[in-house]
Each structure stands twice: as C-alpha cells, then as structure tokens.
Amino acid sequence: MRYFLLLISTLMLTGSLTACRFNNDNTAQQEVIRAHQHFIAQLAPYAQQLYREYHVLPSITLAQAILESNWGTSTLATKYHNLFGVKGEDPHNTQLLTTQEYVNGQWQTITGRFRVYPSYQAAMLDHALLFVHGTSWNGQQYADVLHANNYQTAAQALLTDGYATDPNYPQKLLKIITKYHLEQYDH
C-alpha cells in the first residue's frame, strides 16, 4: 500500500511539474508572439509610407527587417539600428562586424563594414533608397525589385538582382511573409 501511495504521489507531483513547465513554456511563447507583433507594428506604418514614396513593397521591407535583424535582436540592429545588413565604406558611419555570406557555393565568415543609423526609420529609408538608386557600379541594379507588383516576384528579384548571396533568400522571405501575413500591408 505504501508503494502505491508513493507512486500516486510521484505521478501527481510529476503531473504538476509538467503542467507548471507547460504554463511557463506557454507564457514564454506568448511573450515572443507579443514581441513579434510589436516589432511589426513598430515598422509597418513607415514601411507603407516608403512604399507610397519609393515603391518598395512593405511586406518585403518587413520580411527583410525580420530576417536580417532577427526581429531587431541582432547586434547590428540593437547597437547600430541597421535592420538590413546594409554595408558601407565610410569609417565614420560604419562598424566592422563579422557575418556569414554565401560565396562560391558555401557559407563563409567575413568581416564587413556595416552602416550605423540613428534610428530604425533612418535604416528603412536608406534601404528604400538603395533600391531606388542602385549601387555605385549599377544605378539600375534593383529595378526588378521596384517594378515587382507582388511580394513573390520582389522576393525572387532580390536574389536575381544581387541583393542577397543566400540562394534560399527568397524562400526565407516568402515563409516569413505568409506566416505573419505581411502581405496585408501591401494594400
């Protein structure tokens, strides 16, 4: 009988611990969801404004910010407000950091100069202007991104126009856009 009571007590305690762990996991998951919603809500109005001015789809801007900055939690985003991994050359407004780039069919760690911004909005504006003005060697480099009428075409154009080195970049953006319904901001 004593063994039976001990077994029941153990099962009850284990069940309580499991329920407690489940509640803690659920609470943590809810906090992550709220943080993600807050991040999107923080950036979406300005992404829509930039769309009206420069024709970069808000879903693309938001998905790139999410992917490139890990929801605004990367060092580049938290310390330097750089949401998109935009590089620069001027030592006065850039910071040297290491990153992973897909080069010659494999991932490599490189050190690059990344732009420093005073705010997320400044980073978003610079991101839109990069698409509008292109690069110093090709002013029309991102024309396909600007002319895209939907986020699927724009995501693919980011790869074909040379914005991303990751061959899976378009698929990663599309997954984010559909999971978080970012296409709603394009209308």
How would you characterize this protein structure?
With 187 residues, the chain is mostly helical. It has 7 helices and 2 strands; from the N terminus they run αααββαααα. It has a two-stranded antiparallel ribbon. Helix 1 crosses helix 2 (58-69), helix 1 crosses helix 4 and helix 6 runs antiparallel to helix 7. The longest helix has 53 residues, at 2-54. The radius of gyration is 22 Å and the shape is globular. It starts with a helix and ends in an 8-residue tail after the last helix. The model is unreliable at 3-8 (pLDDT under 50).
Quick overview of this protein structure:
With about 190 residues, the chain is mostly helical. The protein is built from seven helices and two strands.
Helix and strand arrangement:
Elements: H1 2-54, H2 58-69, H3 75-80, E1 94-103, E2 106-115, H4 120-133, H5 143-147, H6 151-160, H7 169-179
Antiparallel strand pairs: 1-2
Descriptors for this entry?
187 residues, two-stranded antiparallel sheet, globular
Low-confidence stretches: 3-8
Number of helices: 7
- The separation of the N and C termini measures 69 Å
Shape: globular
Secondary-structure element order, as H and E?
Answer: HHHEEHHHH
Structural class: mainly alpha
Biggest beta sheet summary: 2 strands, antiparallel
Rg calculated over all Cα atoms: 22 Å
Number of E-state strands: 2
